[in-house]
Amino acid sequence: MATLAPDLADRSWRTAPAASQSKPADGFLSQWMLRLLFLDVALYAIRDTLTGSIRYYMDMFGLSTLWFVPDVIAFVVFGYFCYTAIIQNRSLLAAMLVVNFFAAAVIGAIYMNQSSLAFVTGIKAVIPLFVGMAFIDRSITEKRYCRIILFTMMAMSAIGLIFAPHSNYPWVGANISNFGFEKTVGKLWWAGGVVRYGGFAGDSTMAAFMVIFPYFLLYNHLPRWANVALWPVLFYALDISTSKTASGVLAAFVAYYVAIHILIPAHRRLGLQQGVAVSSYLLVLFPILMIFVLGGANIDANYPDLFSLQDRIDNSWQKPFEYLSQTYPAGLLTGCGLGCFSYPMTYTEMAGYAVPVDNFYITTYLFLGIPFAILVIAQAFAVRNLRDPSKLALVAMLNIYTVTVACYGPSFATIIAGYVFSGLFGKAAFGPSYARKHRRSAAKTPPDPSIAEEPAHRPGAAA
């Protein structure tokens, strides 16, 4: 198995952590909150990689409540995000998002006439976004232990899929009980007569996500030979999961890696990476384009493999807005609240309207409305100033992946979606002049000596 390689010697893309500009009195608290943030990401990664097996054995030993530990920590991290982004960085976008979040919780409760379970489930589905967003001016992979955990989860997810056709995992088809509700932790799905294996996660989509996205976070910490050696293994695991979306995204990444890291000279890479990341936001408009061009076209009659795309065009991407226009027209602008037209809606009286939307941007717009559209536009502009090569690649790959996946349910997927937006709330989000203005205002505050930035590694040093 490949060994994690060094960070790049050129750390010019890394801005100083926001916490390093905090007052000395805040230093101890900031350090512990950051540790909690990294811990929560690690716990979510472990939980989503091993969902089926963890829930099965937790239920067996009467420890099911431990499943919710990462969710409890996430609410603490939400408070850290509010403090760092709004109070320290004075981000108007962050303030708008937080107000929007609370307003959406209320709108959802009213629109869906939610029970307490549905209300909490809707909030729990969205709160991991803020865990990802809390990485303001930081990288998920800057801590060595976090890199090791992510690499291990990527490997375990791949191994779980590879051995699935030859093993009878005990959690497949098993039922557990949580708060009086029965839940199947490892469903066996079929597609076109082929089994969709879920590996240790028990769900093929989740298992496939945990194969590729930890890899996208880590690829820049791996030597070239390790990247190339991993590709056949990852493709094989994805083929067993039958996730066409994940396989397509990995194929896009391989083309991206070969073009940028092998064929393009080093001095031209950053500009090209920024251009690809910015251009990827055009994919946000892809569902709208498809509805206008192929709505009702029945292309699946001649091309059966395109059935799922035609279904999304005719149903998943349109029906929620049709239902909103009938039941809550204002929701076309304000959104219909946290959890609407997603799995929390199935716990409400409006379960009959629930539609698998299968697109992150449409789903989140339905949750939050116009404020989220503003956030996406701001993000598309801010990406031009992003200098982290790993994050630039992640932006492009996530925008491809989310065309047909909502990223709610597997919490680590929601975290990655939030992480892509995290730089938007930093002081350098909109370019050097914006950053200089904030540096001048912060110049009177001495840096906290208790928080030191992790030193850059030399090429060839151990990770």
Describe how the helices and strands are arranged:
Blueprint: H1 27-49, H2 51-60, H3 69-88, H4 92-111, H5 116-133, H6 144-163, E1 175-178, E2 181-184, E3 189-191, E4 194-196, H7 204-218, H8 224-241, H9 244-263, H10 266-279, H11 286-294, H12 307-316, H13 319-327, H14 331-334, H15 360-368, H16 370-382, H17 389-401, H18 411-421, H19 432-442
Antiparallel strand pairs: 1-2, 3-4
Helix pairs in contact: 1-3, 1-6, 3-5, 5-18, 6-7, 6-8, 7-8, 7-9, 7-17, 8-9, 9-17, 10-17
- Side by side, the strands of the main sheet go 1-2
Are there runs of 5+ residues with pLDDT below 50, and where? Answer: 1-25, 448-463
Relative strand content: under 5%
Mean pLDDT: 85
Largest sheet: 2 strands, antiparallel
Q: Number of helical runs?
A: 19
What would you call the shape? globular
Number of strands: 4
Order of H and E elements: HHHHHHEEEEHHHHHHHHHHHHH
Radius of gyration: 22 Å
Distance between the termini: 15 Å
Summing up helix and strand content along with how strands pair, one would put the structural category as: mainly alpha
What share of the residues lie within helices?
55-70%
